[in-house]
From TrEMBL:
Its EC number is 2.6.1.-. This is Aminotransferase. It is an enzyme of class 2 (transferase). Keywords: Aminotransferase, Pyridoxal phosphate, Transferase.
Length: 396
C-alpha cells in the first residue's frame, strides 16, 4: 500500500485536517461492535422506498437515460418540485431558474453556504442542531454563531435572535433554520416564524431554511416555511430522504430567487456536474404521486413516538414534546448527572441501547440524549424495556 510522501504531509489543507469527523457517525460506529445492541443513533428510516418510485427509476434506466443531466436538474424533476412546493406551501418557484437539484440536503447546504458567504462571514445557528452544519460553515470559511435555545423549550425567539445580532453575531450574513428540528423534533408556528422574519429583515440576513422533515409533523401541527413569509430572503432546502425513505438515493433540492440561484447553480455544477438521471426521475414520481406514502409513514412514526416518549417519561426522562421529524431529545434524569457522553457510553455497554449524546448537537445539548424512533416497533419496545432496567439497576 502506498504511503504519502513525507514532503507532502504538511502541505495538505490544514483547515480540513483540523475539522473533526461527524461525532454522531463516529459514536454510532464505535458502539456497533457491541453484540446485540439496538442502535437508535442514525436518523435513517427503516421503511422501504415505495415500489412505484423504484419502478419509475428502473424504467428510466431501461430507456437508457444515462447521459449528463442539465446542471440545474432534469426538467421532469424541477417541474415536480415546483408543483409540490406550490401545492404544499402555496409558494411559487419557476422550475426554469429558481430550483436546483442536489445530492441530498447535505450537498444543498454546502452549495448554498458557499454561494452566499465570504471568508469570515458569520452565520447564526440556533442550537441544539445537526452538528454537520458547523463543519460545512467552517469549510466554506464562515463562522458559526451558536444560539442556545434550550431555555425557551428549544424554539428560537425574536428576542434571542436580536440579542445575538447585537452582540457576538453582529454583522452576520445569514441564519440557518431547521424546521422541524433535528434533534429536538420541535416545530415553529406561523406566528413564531413571522416574528423571526421581522428580525431577519431588520438585520438584512439571508434565511437558509432546512425543511427535510416537513412532511413528518404530528397531531394538529402544520408545517409553515419562511419562504411563505420572506421569499425574497429565503433559500429553501429540502429533499426526499426522510419522507420517502430514500436516504441512499441522495436526492434533494434548493428553491430560491433567481438572482442567487444563478450562483447556486454555478457552484453546484462545479461540485457535482449534475444529479443522477434515474434518481431524479424516481424522485419526480415520488413528488407527483407519493402523498399517500408519507401519510402512511407519518402514522407509523407517530405511533413509535408514543412508544418511546411514554417509556422514557416513566423512567424519569424529560423532554420538550416532539412535534415532527423522528427524534426524541430527552434530558437525562438528574441522578445520572450531566455528562451525556459518559451516560450514552454506559447505556450502550450495560443496556445495549445506542443513543447519541446531546452535546454533539451544540450549545444547549449537554445533559440530553437523542433517540431516533425510525426503527421497528419491536426494537423500540425492547430498547425502552432495556433502558427501564438500566435505570432501575443503576439507581438502586
Amino acid at each position: 500500500m502506498p504511503t504519502l510522501a513525507k514532503s507532502l504531509s504538511k502541505t495538505i489543507n490544514q483547515k480540513i485536517s483540523k475539522l473533526p469527523k461527524s461525532e454522531i457517525r463516529a459514536f454510532s460506529q464505535d458502539i456497533s461492535q457491541i453484540p446485540g445492541i439496538i442502535k437508535l443513533t442514525v436518523g435513517e428510516p427503516d421503511l422501504k422506498t415505495p415500489e412505484h418510485i423504484k419502478k419509475a427509476a428502473m424504467d428510466d434506466i431501461a430507456r437508457d437515460d444515462s447521459h449528463y443531466a442539465p446542471e440545474a436538474g432534469k426538467e421532469e424533476y424541477l417541474n415536480a418540485v415546483s408543483k409540490y412546493l406550490n401545492d404544499s406551501l402555496g409558494v411559487s418557484y419557476d422550475p426554469k431558474g429558481e430550483i436546483c437539484a442536489t445530492v441530498g440536503v447535505s450537498e444543498a447546504l454546502n452549495v448554498s453556504i458557499m454561494s452566499i458567504i465570504n471568508p469570515g462571514d458569520k452565520i447564526i445557528v440556533p442550537t441544539p442542531v445537526w452538528g454537520v452544519y458547523f463543519g460545512i460553515i467552517e469549510m466554506a470559511g464562515g463562522i458559526a454563531v451558536q444560539v442556545d435555545t434550550s431555555a425557551n423549550n428549544f424554539i428560537l425567539s425574536p428576542e434571542m435572535l436580536r440579542d445575538t445580532l447585537e452582540n457576538e453575531g453582529k454583522g452576520a450574513k445569514a441564519i440557518i433554520m431547521t424546521d422541524p428540528s433535528n434533534p429536538t423534533g420541535r416545530v415553529y408556528s406561523k406566528e413564531e416564524l413571522t416574528a423571526l422574519a421581522e428580525v431577519i429583515c431588520d438585520y438584512n440576513l439571508f434565511a437558509l431554511s432546512d425543511e427535510i422533515y416537513a412532511e413528518l409533523i404530528y397531531g394538529h401541527k402544520k408545517h409553515y416555511s419562511l419562504a411563505q413569509i420572506i421569499p425574497e430572503r429565503t433559500i429553501l432546502l429540502s429533499g426526499l430522504s426522510k419522507n420517502f425513505a430514500m436516504t441512499g438515493w441522495r436526492i434533494g433540492y434548493i428553491a430560491a430567487p433567481s438572482e442567487i440561484m444563478k450562483t447556486i447553480i454555478k457552484v453546484n455544477s462545479f461540485m457535482i456536474t449534475s444529479v443522477t438521471d434515474n434518481v431524479q426521475i424516481g424522485a419526480a414520481e415520488a413528488l407527483e404521486n407519493g402523498e399517500q406514502d408519507y401519510v402512511e409513514a407519518r402514522a407509523i412514526y407517530e405511533r413509535r413516538l408514543h412508544i418511546v416518549q411514554t417509556g422514557l417519561e416513566k423512567n424519569g426522562f424529560k423532554m420538550a414534546t416532539p412535534e415532527g421529524a423522528f427524534y426524541v431529545f430527552a434530558q437525562i434524569p438528574d441522578k445520572f448527572g450531566q455528562d451525556d457522553v459518559a451516560f450514552a457510553k454506559d447505556l450502550a455497554v450495560k443496556a445495549k441501547v445506542g443513543v447519541v449524546p446531546g452535546s454533539y448537537f451544540g450549545k444547549g445539548g449537554q445533559g440530553f440524549v437523542r433517540l431516533s424512533y425510525a426503527s421497528s416497533d419491536e426494537n423500540l419496545k425492547l430498547a425502552v424495556s432495556r433502558i427501564s432496567e438500566y435505570v432501575k439497576d443503576t439507581l438502586k
